[in-house]
């Protein structure tokens, strides 16, 4: 498998693209490597293969939850593809964002979404910090050998290691 390319795969309904566009831009400004369909889809490229490759190369999947998204067969496929990586030992984390009020399907009962129904900036700060915490946690566990190489060599991890070399060394060697 090739080295990971993305910290975050942004999964959203195209009907929610305005908010997704805002999120992708802010995440990129804040140093995350983001796979965003609007930026990475090209004519002549098999979208199914491109999405599957990106999902396999992402540490986190940020899922923009709306009635349109949870009913979308395409987004269900993205989610199941990403979740199936757990079975292959290439663990990633799903980070759900609640975009509006609606009745969540039972499959989302175990998740605690970040609430984007109110103040965007406040919710975005929660998302940014949560993603950083998850990626830092994955980086720390990679030094102990408990994280897959896909997550251990995420672009975010590499940036963190450059800034904090101690993260690159196992705890028993510090």
What does this structure look like?
The chain has 8 helices and 5 strands; from the N terminus they run E-H-E-H-H-E-H-H-E-E-H-H-H. The chain has 174 residues and is α/β, with parallel strands linked by helices. The chain has a 5-stranded parallel sheet with strand order 2-1-3-4-5, sandwiched between helices. Strand 1, helix 1 and strand 2 (34-35) form a beta-alpha-beta unit. It is globular and about 40 Å long.
How are the elements arranged and paired?
Layout: E1 6-11, H1 17-29, E2 34-35, H2 37-40, H3 47-56, E3 58-65, H4 67-71, H5 73-84, E4 93-98, E5 114-115, H6 120-143, H7 149-152, H8 155-163
User: How would you name the oligomeric state of the polypeptide chains in this document?
Assistant: single chain
- What CATH architecture do you see? 3-Layer(aba) Sandwich
Under the CATH scheme, which class?
Answer: Alpha Beta
The largest beta-sheet arranges its strands as: 2-1-3-4-5
- What is the CA-atom radius of gyration, in angstroms? 16 Å
Classify the beta-strand content into a percent band: 5-15%
Low-confidence stretches: 146-153, 163-174
Shape: globular
Q: Output the helix-strand order.
A: EHEHHEHHEEHHH
Total domains: 1
């Amino acid at each position: 498998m090739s080295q990971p390319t993305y910290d975050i795969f942004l999964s959203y309904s195209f009907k929610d693209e305005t908010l997704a566009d805002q999120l992708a831009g802010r995440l990129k400004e804040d140093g995350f490597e983001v796979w965003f369909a609007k930026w990475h889809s090209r004519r002549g490229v098999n979208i199914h293969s491109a999405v599957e490759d990106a999902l396999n190369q992402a540490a986190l999947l940020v899922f923009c939850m709306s009635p349109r998204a949870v009913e979308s067969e395409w987004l269900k496929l993205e989610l199941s593809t990403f979740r199936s990586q757990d079975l292959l030992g290439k663990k990633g984390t799903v980070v759900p964002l609640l975009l509006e009020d609606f009745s969540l399907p039972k499959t989302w009962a175990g998740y605690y979404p970040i609430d984007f129904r109110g103040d965007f900036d406040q919710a975005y700060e929660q998302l940014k910090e949560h993603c950083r915490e998850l990626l830092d946690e994955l980086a720390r566990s990679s030094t102990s050998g408990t994280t897959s190489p896909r997550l251990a060599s995420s672009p975010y991890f590499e940036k963190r290691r450059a800034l904090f070399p101690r993260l690159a060394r196992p705890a028993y060697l510090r």
